[in-house]
C-alpha cells in the first residue's frame, strides 16, 4: 500500500472511531485518535497477521497495552476482515463482545488488556517464547505515556534487555496527556529515552502521525541486534479533530451531534486535501 493510500485509510479510521463511539455514547476518543496512525502502519505494512493465519503459531503478535483505546484497534481489525464492521454497532451494548477494552472473545485480539501495565510483560513473555521455540515471529506492544509509571513495565523492561529480546518492539504513544492531566503533572517519567536506554533498550523517536516516517522506523527493526527496540512516537491526543486536540477533556469524552458533524466535516476536508 502506498503512503497516500495509508494516509487516506487513517482518515477513514478516524471517522469510524468517531462513528462507533458516538453510536455507543461511550469510548476513549482522544487516545484512539492519537494511536490510529501507528495501528494503521502496523496492520497494513508491518505485521504478519491476518484472519487466515491468526491461529498459526508463526504469526506476529500485537498486544495493545493501552487497552482503553480499543476503538482504534476495532476499526483496524474490522478493516482487515477479522470480523464484520457491522458488529461494531453493538459497541458497549449489553451482551456485546465489543466492550470498552480488548478481550480475546473478539477475533484478532491476542490478549485481554485495559488494566494498565500488563501489555509489556505479556509481550516480553511472548518474545521469550519465540526465542525458546526458535521461531521468527515478532512481538509488538503499544504503551501509553500515562501507563508507563506502572511498576510492571519496569520489571518487564529489565527482563527484555536481560534476555536480549531483539524480536520485541514497544511503541510509546507519546501524547503527553493521560486521564486527568498532563503525564508530567500526574507522574513524571522523563527522560523516557534515557531511562529505556539505561535499561538496555535501543530507542528511537518518530512523529507518530507521519506515515512515511513510521514505515521507515518499523522497516529498520531491530535497531540493534541483541536489544529490544523502543519507539517513542510523538503524537497528539485527539489528532485530526481540532477541538479535541491536546485537550484532556476528550480522554473519554463523547461528541454531541453538532460536535460529531463538525468532526466529520473536518475529516472529510482532510480527505480532500490528501486526494489533491
Ligand atoms: C492499572 C490501571 N490504573 C488506572 C487505570 C485508569 N486509566 C485508564 S486510562 C488512564 C490513563 C492512561 O493514559 P495514557 O496511557 O497516556 O493513555 P492515552 O492518553 O494515550 O489515552 C488511566 C489512569 C487503568 N485502566 N488501569
Task: Tell me about this structure.
- The chain is an alpha/beta fold and 276 residues long.
- It has 9 helices and 5 strands; from the N terminus they run H-H-E-H-H-E-H-E-H-H-E-H-E-H.
- The chain has helices at 3-24, 29-46, 70-79, 119-132, 151-162, 183-186, 192-198, 211-219, 257-275; strands at residues 61-64, 139-144, 168-174, 202-207, 229-234.
- A 5-stranded parallel beta sheet has the order 1-2-3-5-4, with helices on both faces.
- Helix 2 (29-46) packs across helix 8.
- The longest helix is centred in the N-terminal third of the chain and has 22 residues, at 3-24.
- The model has no long low-confidence stretch (mean pLDDT 98).
- It binds thiamine diphosphate.
